[in-house]
Write a structure and sequence with these properties.
Length: 332
C-alpha cells in the first residue's frame, strides 16, 4: 500500500477526531445488533431461573422463560441464540444417551422457541459434556478420550437437533472427523439446509471455568481437555483446522475464546474470507463483570469496546453473554 501520510503539519490526524459526527463518518468498524449470537442456559422445570454465581447477570432458565427471552431478544434485533442445557445428575451417564434423545432439554427448547419466534436463528452446542458422567466432551476409556466412537455419538446428537429444528449446529467437541461425518449424515437424512458453525479453533482455556459451573460440569470434570482442545501457543494450527473444517462441510467457523485470541480471528479472516465468528466466553464475561462490580471499570464502555474489537479483528459476529445489554444500548 502506498504511504498516504503527509508530514506534520500538512497532516493533522486530530482533524478527523474533532467531533462525534466526523468520528462517525470515518469509523472503519461498527457494532450492530446483527452481530450477536446470544448464548443461554436451560434448566428443567417451569417458570423458574437460577443464578450462576460466577456469571453475575446470567441465569439458567426454564423453557417457558427462554421462550420469553427469545421474544425479547428478537425485538431487540438479536438474530440468533445458542442453547446450553444444565442436565440433572440422573441424565448424566457413561453412554451419554440423553445427548441424542428427541426430548432432551435442548431439543424441547428448540421446538418451543421455533414455535413462538420462528424467525429466531437457533444454534446448538454439540459435545457430550452436559450428558457425560465425567464432564468430558467425548467418551473416556482408561483415561483416554475416544475419537471415532465419540463422533458416532455426536452425529446422532446432530441429527436429533436438526430434527427439532435447529438452524446452525455448533460442534464444540474438537474430535477429528466430526464435521465430515455430520455433514454427510445431514445430507443423507434430508437436512441439507442445516448449517454447521464449527467451533474450529477452540483452545484448551482457563476462561471456560464459569461456563462449566453454569452447566454443572466443573465438579464432574476429571483432568483437563488438552488432548483434544488446542494448545494456547499455536496459531498456524488454527489455519489448518479452518481449512480442514471447510473441506469437510462447515459453513461458518469460530475462534474460542475471543479476546485473548483476536490475532487468530484476523489470520482466519484474512486467509479464508469465510464467515468468521468468535466466542467471548464465560471467563471473559466474568472478568469484566467482576471489575465493574468493584467500580474499577465502566461496564457500558468496556462491554461495547470489547465487542467492537471483534469486528476490528475481522469477525462477522460474536457469541456474547452481553448480547441483550449491548443491544439495548445500541438501540438507544
Ligand atoms: C463444551 C463447551 C464449553 C464452552 C462451550 N461449549 C466448555 C468446555 O469446552 O469446557 C465454553 C463457553 C464459555 O466458557 O462461555 N463443549
Amino acid at each position: 500500500m502506498k504511504p498516504t501520510v503527509a508530514p506534520y503539519p500538512t497532516a493533522r490526524f486530530r482533524r478527523l477526531r474533532k467531533s462525534a459526527g466526523i468520528r462517525a463518518m470515518v469509523r472503519e468498524n461498527t457494532l450492530t445488533t446483527d452481530d450477536f449470537i446470544w448464548p443461554v442456559f436451560l434448566i428443567e422445570g417451569k417458570d423458574d431461573e437460577t443464578a450462576i454465581p460466577s456469571m453475575p447477570g446470567v441465569t439458567r432458565k426454564t423453557i417457558d422463560r427462554v421462550v420469553n427471552s427469545a421474544r425479547e431478544a428478537f425485538s431487540l434485533g438479536i438474530p440468533a441464540m445458542c442453547l446450553f442445557p444444565y442436565t440433572s445428575m440422573e441424565h448424566r451417564t457413561e453412554d451419554c444417551a440423553m445427548a441424542w434423545s428427541r426430548d432432551n432439554l435442548t431439543n424441547q427448547a428448540i421446538r418451543a422457541i421455533k414455535d413462538a419466534v420462528p424467525e429466531m436463528v437457533i444454534m446448538t452446542d454439540i459435545a457430550l459434556d452436559p450428558y457425560n458422567i465425567n464432564g468430558h466432551d467425548g467418551y473416556v476409556e482408561n483415561g483416554e478420550i475416544l475419537n471415532d466412537e465419540t463422533v458416532d455419538a455426536l452425529v446422532k446428537m446432530a441429527l436429533a437437533q436438526a430434527e427439532a429444528g435447529a438452524d446452525l449446529l455448533g460442534p464444540s467437541d474438537m474430535m477429528d472427523g466430526r464435521i465430515g461425518a455430520m455433514r454427510s449424515a445431514l445430507e443423507s437424512e434430508g437436512y441439507q439446509n442445516v448449517g454447521i458453525l464449527s467451533y474450529t479453533a477452540k483452545y484448551a482455556s482457563g476462561f471456560y471455568g464459569p461456563f462449566r459451573d453454569a452447566v454443572g460440569a466443573s465438579s464432574a470434570l476429571k483432568g483437563d481437555k488438552k488432548t483434544y482442545q488446542m494448545d494456547a501457543g499455536n496459531s498456524d494450527e488454527a489455519l489448518r483446522l479452518v481449512e480442514r473444517d471447510l473441506m469437510e462441510g462447515a459453513d461458518m467457523v469460530m475462534i474460542k475464546p475471543g479476546m485473548p485470541y483476536l490475532d487468530i480471528c484476523r489470520r482466519v479472516k484474512d486467509t479464508f474470507g469465510v464467515p468468521t465468528f468468535a466466542y467471548q466466553v464465560s471467563g471473559e464475561y466474568a472478568m469484566i463483570q467482576a471489575a465493574v462490580a468493584n467500580g474499577w471499570l465502566d461496564g457500558e464502555k468496556v462491554m461495547l469496546e470489547s465487542l467492537l474489537a471483534f469486528k476490528r479483528a475481522g469477525c462477522d459476529g460474536i457469541l456474547t453473554y452481553f448480547a441483550p445489554e449491548a443491544a439495548r444500548i445500541l438501540n438507544g
